[in-house]
Amino acid sequence: MSLKILRGWYVILLRPALTRGALVRAVTSQGGHPVCIPGLRLQAAADPQVADQALACALRAPLVLVTSPAAVHFARRLPSWRRAADTRFAAVGGGSAQALRRAGARDVIQPISRQDSDGLLQHPVLQDDMLASVGLLTAPGGRGRLIDVLGQRGVSVCRADVYRRLPPRLDRRHLHALDAIDGPSALLHSSAEALVNLQVALPSACWHRLIGALLIPSSARLAAQARELGFQLGPTAESATAIDMVDALIKARTGVD
């Protein structure tokens, strides 16, 4: 991949500043021009003491589910994270698994096939009849499917909302960045909430410019959402990690299956 295969392409990134660094580097390494239009703002939990108490509860479970790299970022800032070294974690996708390992976690599992909640729920560890309880590190409103399905299986969930996902604060810079696109464009899509937020926040003309981009989803669920919104879809990435998202875009660019 030494050729700058994305030269001349504008690649729209919806991740907030905290979590988009790897994507920016991956896009620029292939000659692409990143266009950062955050669909979310990430902040620490409103009450750190309550969040830390919930984290302590979650970490006492035999298995702790982690929904995003952001959950790792904010959880490790809380005092109870010091107990995490010997915890067994289950990451929803490859990005969360990478973040956990960088944070010192030694025992991390992740989906074997599709890198999303359903993929994790299909993992043999999550389907073990002996699994009675799990912890969950997430944000309010996130990953309801995990809780619903685990509840149906009789698994109790100790949930720790360690951060918050808030609507973005877009300004003229973001709108001008979209207006300045004057070549082929792609959108790397890994958050349903981010796309919904932008549909609400962007002026109609900017939203339609967004829809004109070739969309690379990180899961089948996100592909279905984007299709309903009118996007043209490229191949679904193997996961939401930067390398997999950009590899999927390169496949679309070169026509490689």
Provide an overview of this structure.
- There is one protein chain.
- This protein has helices at residues 21-29, 48-59, 69-75, 94-102, 117-121, 144-152, 172-179, 192-201, 204-211, 220-229, 242-254, and strands at 10-13, 33-36, 41-44, 64-66, 88-91, 107-109, 133-138, 156-161, 163-166, 185-189, 214-217, 232-233.
- The chain has 257 residues and is α/β, with parallel strands linked by helices.
- It has two domains: 10-40 and 169-254, Rossmann fold (3-Layer(aba) Sandwich); 43-165, Rossmann fold.
- It has a five-stranded parallel sheet, sandwiched between helices. Strands 6-5-4-7-8 form a five-stranded parallel sheet, with helices on both faces.
- It is globular, with a radius of gyration of 19 Å.
Task: Please describe the topology of this protein.
Elements: E1 10-13, H1 21-29, E2 33-36, E3 41-44, H2 48-59, E4 64-66, H3 69-75, E5 88-91, H4 94-102, E6 107-109, H5 117-121, E7 133-138, H6 144-152, E8 156-161, E9 163-166, H7 172-179, E10 185-189, H8 192-201, H9 204-211, E11 214-217, H10 220-229, E12 232-233, H11 242-254
Parallel strand pairs: 1-2, 1-10, 4-5, 4-7, 5-6, 7-8, 10-11, 11-12
Antiparallel strand pairs: 3-9
Helix pairs in contact: 1-11, 3-4
- Which percent band covers the strand fraction? 15-25%
Count of discrete domains:
2
Largest sheet: 5 strands, parallel
Rg, Cα atoms, Å: 19 Å
Helix-strand sequence: EHEEHEHEHEHEHEEHEHHEHEH
The CATH architecture of the largest domain: 3-Layer(aba) Sandwich
Mean pLDDT: 94
The CATH topology of the largest domain turns out to be Rossmann fold
